Amino acid sequence: MPFGRNERIRFSKIYSLSCFRPSTSDEHAQIGQKGYSRVVYCNDPENPEALQLRYRSNYVSTTKYTAINFIPKSLFEQFRRVANIYFLVVACVSFSPLAPFRASSILFPLLVVIGATMAKEGVEDWRRRKQDIKANNRKVHVYRGNSFSQSKWKDLRVGDLVKVNKDEYFPSDLLLLSSSYPDGICYVETMNLDGETNLKLKHAFDFTSSLNNDTSFHQFKAMVKCEDPNEDLYSFVGSLSYNGQHHPLSLQQILLRDSKLRNTEYVYGVVIFTGHDTKVMQNATDPPSKRSKIERRMDKIIYILFTTLISISFIGSIFFGIRTSRDLNHEGYGRWYLEPTRTTALYDPKRPILAAFLHFLTGLMLYGYLIPISLYVSIEMVKVLQSIFINQDQDMYHEETNKPARARTSNLNEELGQVDTILSDKTGTLTCNSMEFVKCSIGGVAYGRGMTEVELALAKRKNSGSPGSHGGTSGSHGDDVMKLEKLIKGFNFRDERIMKGEWVNEDNSDIIQKFFRVLAICHTAIPEVKKETNELSYEAESPDEAAFVIAARELGFEFFQRTQTRISLHECVNGQKVDRSYELLNMIEFNSSRKRMSVIIRNTENQLLLLCKGADSVMFERLCKESQPFEEETKNHINKYAEAGLRTLVIAYRVVEEEEYKKWEEEFIKAKNSVSVERDDLIDAAAEKIERNLILLGATAVEDKLQKGVPECIQKLSNAGIKMWVLTGDKMETAINIGYASLEKLNDKEAITNAKRESIKKQLMEGRSQLDLAKSSSVLFALIIDGRSLTFALEKNLESLFLDVAIDCKSVICCRSSPKQKALVTKMVKEGTRKTTLAIGDGANDVGMLQEADIGVGISGAEGMQMKGRVNKEGEWTDVRRWKLPANQMITAFYATNIPDGANCNKLREVFMEYGEVVDIYIARKKDASGSNFAFIRFKVIGDIKALEGNSNL
Fold first, then answer.
1. Considering 194, 258, 425, 480, which one is annotated as catalytic?
2. pTM of this structure
């Protein structure tokens, strides 16, 4: 790597790393007892004790059926329908002489209905099976025979040593031993587990982090004792025995299956849990057998019809039996036209009870058409046709990703019109899962043109407000231009006052320089250069952080290199790029309690600077008490940004004296090296002493855009009276306060648990009282609850109260909820309201919720709205991007880069004329971020756009 990405970075030396504290929980004392009895022999497959252990294989199955149980289980599903049981009985009886018709007339329709439905179930389950086969046959490097070789996921065993490379998924739950970083850290994306997009930092022990190459494991042997398989994603209890010493394990050393390795070249780990013992599979639920409400209601109607049929046949058979018993009178027959000797047992005056019973069976068959089997045939055909219509619906076709809608089952079509409650994931489902830097306030001046979606919606609602409100102007043409120029992911900022180096002409240029310098330095991002294009990109822990670094780069402060103790920038000075290097001394990371992040650096002038960014709720109280000339203006801008639906952070700094820093550093290092339970508190206390007397620079505003059409969709759903719940794994910005913090320092677990439970109960009861008081008014309420609180709210004694409060709120948001909790909440709503629920999600962490709901809708997220490719085979123009302009759905825009100097509009026009009517072309000379020519082309598509997308030149 050009910038020494991995080799020279040891983040553990500059991080406070409060999250790496070894667990000192009392639960470690329970290892070896019930619930904590798992033993893993690491890299020791021939150990006799290891051979006696019978842990599950790493084979995973999510199908509903197997080859053995398909026929019996599928038949059971079919005969859950009452009508099918009736038709089966009638078909069996129709083979007897009693039948007034041929057996085939009733048996054939029954076989068609059951066979077609079973075939449909089989096809749908085979699709799941193919996904399982694909997952089980993924490859991973396993250490066997003193070397690493490729093996399939399904062949992994507990205790195996594996190597996982960058951007690969972990095949099972692993114990992290080492990574490509010398200090054994790695970055993990857990989107498939908890829905969070920010990266998690994992850390190996120091004594194993040195085992960081393929030849280091010849003599490695260790033993792990840990908890038994469970579904808790947020805790892990265990100990590692290595070289005669025991070391407590925590979640920081565990890599969970279906997480992805990011920003790290490779890691080594030991398999702890496999297959269905892994935490992600423990959170999964078996595929349910869903039946629509109409189908269940039809069963009830069948019961009524069946009762009527039995009644008619029974009454008729009674009268027939009575009349038959009177036929034999004085050795003669009352009905002379019936000859018993020439009839079957249907008529026998000597045995009237048997004749009546046989008459009853005949009546069931004669009057059987009261229950029409053709109705079921028609309904099944209609459902299949509806599924075909859904799959071919052009309004549900996503052109940019070439993905149509897919009805995975046709059993629930009729339920779509009866939905009462929608339970949706947030990240990637409602939002685009990407942050964009759109506005900022620097020195009391608001920068950033244009309006956010929320601002446009508010302006439309008020029927007032110009596009130039909140510090920006934009006409309709300007909007189109902005959309065309929106080419850099994470950056949607437009303001000619400070772009292209114009900030030097502003009155507050000194503050602007410091502001963007903080954004370029105060972060944990890592720069990467693509070898093919030599383009600089960043890998960051969160989309917000990446957006800040990209914004600083685009405005003249390009972060391009990081080492263990230095951060280097290309800074724009008088129109020229100047390299500046800053010594990185300390980093105090962001967490949910601190709500801020700080770095301490030494600049080229030998000044010590503390650079800080954080939430306004904690930053303003840490500002210098002396006059902050633009504090009120900044607060006003932050309020406006919040109203516009933007996420804000306050930017500040201070100059630190040498003596103060030396004294503080001693205390900070002492706190970092502490292994007591108060370690986090000691680090926070040390941070408090240095993060004070800050000088305000301004505030940032980033936007996580909603998916296209989400606001309009939610509005229409609300107008239709459909309730909306949001179940997300993301952290809660506005948390419910639970008053048990003081008890956390004690070791009385029962007291802590009871305090939590009582606090949740008290808050729910207070919520119920507020709702009752507000019934006569138009006040609307929202319920926000986190995953820890959900644990207690979903208990049997609180579940009904929680549901009672929730259903009376206008909206419900469940934050930091695990996959299991999502499924339990969905089940609670479905069973508690007895109304149709629909769940929407986009990740593996949403599967339980989708399966539990009456209807599950899984969506495929798209990274942006663009398509890249080559304009022609010779590569004259590359990096083509296409997206629809909302003003006219038939107008398509292309952005092409690396246009050669000799190219002209006519040459470009020739390329696209075959596919459409070119509206306009504009070529810019060396205006691209990479210094290359680029062009905008807009044209009206003629015919099918597929011809353009599938062309080999693109």
1. 425
2. 0.59
